[in-house]
Write a structure and sequence with these properties.
Blueprint lengths: L1 H84 L11 H18 L2 E9 L2 H8 L1 H18 L5 E6 L2 E9 L4 H14 L2 E3 L2 E3 L3 E8 L6 H17 L5 E3 L4 H20 L3 E10 L7 E10 L3 E3 L5 H7 L2 H21 L6 E5 L2 H5 L3 H12 L6 E5 L1 H4 L3 H13 L2 E7 L6 H6 L4 E4 L1 H6 L4 H16 L3 E4 L5 H9 L4 E3 L7 E2 H9 L2
Parallel strand pairs: 6-7, 9-11, 11-12, 12-13, 13-14, 14-15, 15-16
Antiparallel strand pairs: 1-3, 1-6, 2-3, 4-5, 8-9, 8-16, 8-17, 9-10
Helix pairs in contact: 3-4, 4-5, 6-7, 9-11, 11-13
Bound molecules: ligand C2E and magnesium ion (2 copies).
The site of one magnesium ion (MG) has 4 residues, from loops.
Length: 510
């Protein structure tokens, strides 16, 4: 038993001993495993943290990549726009000069290959500067856009249009067989643009002139054709606006003649070669006194007495009309004051004013100083303006009002030939309408003209505006006009334009 006990206790002890011996490393292992697990857990936690960071970084990288792609797309778009801008005029969106020259080059090569013709049309807007000055730049810009659209509407898909700069436009017509084919396009553009348009709430009346040269007839390369169309354009402008010219060999001669006219006009101003003739006007009732319209003539050293139709337009284009107009005003006022002092009654003098003169900022001053210098009373001066003046801006209206307030009267000359708006007539200080001689010469034969004359009279009278008929040549015309209650007559029947001394006699005659 003892043994057994002993042996069992030994066995138990041994077991214990074994257990002790075995437990130590096991605990250690557990401990180390625990430590390892906790280490791994730490690592896992760190890893998870890192993984979240990495996912966030990956997201950020993705977003950055997207942003980069967008930036690259924008940069590409800018590059495309910059390229487009280098070829296109940003205002009208038409190709610009550089692009146009390339297109012209290509069109000429194609025409050469096909054995066809091509036309180069250059356009220049009439009085664009004065539109800008009078109505302001927004209206000027709107006008350029309107013109660009008119051109686009008038040409085919295969033709080319461009804005070369400022108010200069160009068109290439391709695949032509005859030069005259260019005509219908040119005429369409000139016609569309000759109509008054409402831009930015303002009624604007301009026009355009065109010069045409044809490949291969007038030239074979771009530079040559550009020069020739330019010369044709210059010729068109100097022979009256709103028109076109084909290049012709004698155009150089005509351009030189226009240049000579300009320099001769300059000399004429300095040499005081302009004289005034006067044409009588009779007014019914005579409230306005007798009136003499001053009409300019140029006493040319070799060509005799040159009529205004031969030089006024050139003077307007060169701006010389400002100097000439000032001389006319001064001379007319002085003459009328002299008639008053010499007891020729109390006459009125009517002076023609070009629309260009109104654009000068000192126009009202020049009228005031002509009156002051001569001593003529303001109510003895009548200024004849044209309908084009009436469709201008507020600055012109203010000038009219300012001068009207002094007592000066305004007559609208050649009434019925322009674009008068009745609304303007009501607003402006207009005292008299002069019915254009075109209606007067035919109103007894043409029913339509008779109606127009009657309508002008009725309308004017209802607005309290007097009416004078121009170009009255026969007694029958005079009688019919008086029957229609026309307030005044002017024309060869009463007297032709005459020098001042002869006019003095008319003023004092019974
Ligand atoms: P307007 O002011 O309408 O002048 C009338 C024109 O008709 C004058 O021509 C006159 O000679 C002409 N005429 C007058 N009665 C008759 C008639 O019974 N029958 C016909 N067939 N014609 C008649 P003119 O002197 O050659 O002047 C032409 C235009 O030149 C004027 O037309 C006017 O617009 C312009 N003008 C004349 N003098 C001046 C001026 O000093 N300054 C400006 N800016 N323009 C002027
Ligand atoms: Mg007149
Ligand atoms: Mg007239």
């Amino acid at each position: 038993m003892m043994v057994a006990k002993t042996s069992s206790s030994i066995a138990a002890n041994e077991d214990d001993v074994w257990r002790d011996d075995e437990a130590a490393p096991q605990n250690e292992l557990v401990e180390s495993l625990r430590a390892r697990i906790s280490e791994l857990e730490d690592q896992l936690a760190r890893f998870e943290e890192n993984a979240a960071d990495i996912v966030a970084m990956a997201d950020e990288l993705g977003a950055a990549k997207h942003r980069l792609e967008q930036t690259l797309e924008t940069a590409e778009e800018y590059r495309r726009q910059a390229e487009e801008l280098a070829r296109v005029d940003p205002l009208t969106l038409l190709p610009n000069r550089r692009e146009f020259e390339n297109a012209l080059e290509r069109a000429l090569t194609a025409a050469e290959r096909r054995g066809s013709m091509a036309a180069l049309l250059l356009f220049d807007l009439d009085r664009f500067k004065s539109v800008n000055d009078t109505y302001g730049h927004p209206v000027g810009d709107a006008l350029l856009k309107f013109f660009a659209n008119s051109i686009k509407a008038a040409i085919r898909e295969t033709d080319h249009a461009a804005r070369l700069g400022g108010d200069e436009f160009a068109v290439i017509l391709t695949d032509m067989e005859r030069p005259e084919q260019a005509l219908c396009v040119v005429q369409r553009i000139i016609r569309t643009f000759g109509e008054p348009v409402v831009l930015d709430g303002t009624l604007v009346k301009t026009g355009t002139s065109a010069g045409i040269s044809v490949f291969p007839r007038d030239g074979r390369d771009t530079e040559d054709l550009m020069q020739k169309s330019d010369k044709a354009l210059y010729a068109a402008k100097s022979q009256g606006r709103g028109t076109y010219r084909f290049f012709a060999r004698d155009i150089d001669e005509r351009a030189k003649a226009a240049h000579t006219l300009d320099s001769n006009l300059r000399l004429a101003i300095v040499r005081d070669e302009f004289v005034l003739h006067y044409q009588p006007q009779e007014t019914v009732g005579g409230a306005r006194g007798r009136c003499a319209e001053a009409l300019i003539r140029w006493r040319h050293p070799t060509e005799g007495l040159v009529p205004p139709g031969d030089f006024i337009q050139a003077a307007e284009e060169s701006g010389l009309i400002h100097d000439i107009g000032r001389q006319v005003l001064r001379k007319a006022c002085r003459q009328c004051a002299e008639w008053q002092n010499d007891a020729h009654g109390y006459p009125t003098v009517a002076v023609n004013i070009s629309p260009v003169q109104f654009e000068a900022p000192d126009f009202a001053d020049s009228v005031r100083s002509a009156l002051a210098e001569s001593g003529l009373a303001a109510d003895r001066l009548e200024l004849e303006i044209t309908e084009t003046v009436m469709i201008r801006d507020m600055a012109v209206f203010e000038k009219l009002d300012e001068l009207h307030a002094l007592g000066i009267r305004f007559a609208v000359d050649d009434f019925g030939t322009g674009y008068s708006s009745l609304a303007y007539l009501k607003k402006l200080p207009v005292d008299i309408l002069k019915i254009d001689k075109h209606f007067v010469s035919s109103f007894l034969e043409e029913k339509a003209d008779y109606s127009i004359v009657g309508a002008i009279l009725k309308m004017a009278h209802s607005l309290d505006i007097g009416v004078i008929a121009e170009g009255v040549e026969t007694d029958a015309q005079a009688e019919a006009l008086r029957d229609l209650r026309c307030d005044g007559l002017q024309g060869f029947l009463l007297g032709r334009p005459m020098p001042a001394d002869r006019m003095s006699a008319w003023l004092t005659a019974d």
